[in-house]
Amino acid sequence: MTSEIATSGARSEAPRIGGRCDPRFAGLRSALAGNFAEHGEVGAAVAVTLEGRPVVDLWAGWTDRARTRAWRRDTLVNVFSVGKPMAALCLLMLVERGEVDLDAPVATYWSEFAAAGKADVTVRMLLAHRAGLPAIRRLLPRLSMYDWGLMTSALAAQEPWWEPGSRHGYHVNTYGFLVGELVRRVSGEPIGVFLRRTISGPLGADFHFGVAAGQRRRVADFLLPEVPSEFPGPGTSLLVQRAYMNPPGVSGLGTVNETAWREAEMPSTNAHATARAVARIYCALAAGGSLDGIRLLKDETVELAAREASCGPDAVLNRPSRFGLGFQLTQPERPLGPNDRSFGHFGAGGSLGFADPDEALGFAYTPNQGEGPRWQNPRNRGLIAALYACL
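Now predict its structure.
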């Protein structure tokens, strides 16, 4: 591994790239530089762990809109939905231990969940975005997402938006509360504690649900665009409005850089991490569930989680989506590289983590620029293309 600290070069105002990069992956480093020169990147990191070895660990840019604070090796950033599969991973660990049955009703472990016609909703449905609970219909006060008990009790009381199991729809902001409450009920620990004890701690991965007070100085501001108060816009269905905006602030608009947001445990939306951490976790999964003697899951459990469980028109996104048990799967409209077995998850702003078992790699991209296309972001697409061109 050779040190790479040089000017990105395409424009005089482009930042310097810090970190390390195997010469084989020089094209990926160039693609990162190109994101600043051509796509308005503000601050970002990219990492690749290949066959258990870190081969790319790069960062550049600024952690604030005014561009006064440089991105550093230990900078954390909100990676939004990149946290969803990490929450699912926690629950899958309990499944593998025999403490949770995928085909048992959720109410077996969370009795209140049986209300409003949900007695037969299974754990498998929940993990695959098939439970019919992508939103809370009853309007909640602003910032209610910081009250775990309120959010989970509201979800337990909520009638499904469709017959559970009959279709799937992306559980944008509810997924982490649903999965996290199951983890809490079974393990007796909040999901942030469980993640730290079983995954991020043993692997030495800088990944957090809830950033401790002493670590918040490392967090980059996330630069969401200004959005009109009627977001997601006139004509949007009640389901989508509630999914993204109930309670107000749940998607991060006006809240993402607040201390309360950073310290809360909201696995759907407020995971904070370095790219290095995300790539390391995914490399473990790409290698059959273990890395450096630390086993997260057995190979067969990883294969089960990465097997298609939902595919086709998405009831929330109104476009095709494809999921395993907690993981997004590669699809033509939004590929995770060229290999069919790749699995991972995108997040707001283009953040991304994925595993490619065929190449034995974990990849991660963690930016703080929230503007740009949400569905097909040119910044992460360019990085993925560059990665595979280097292999």
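Residues 74-375 form a domain with the Beta-lactamase fold (CATH 3.40.710.10).
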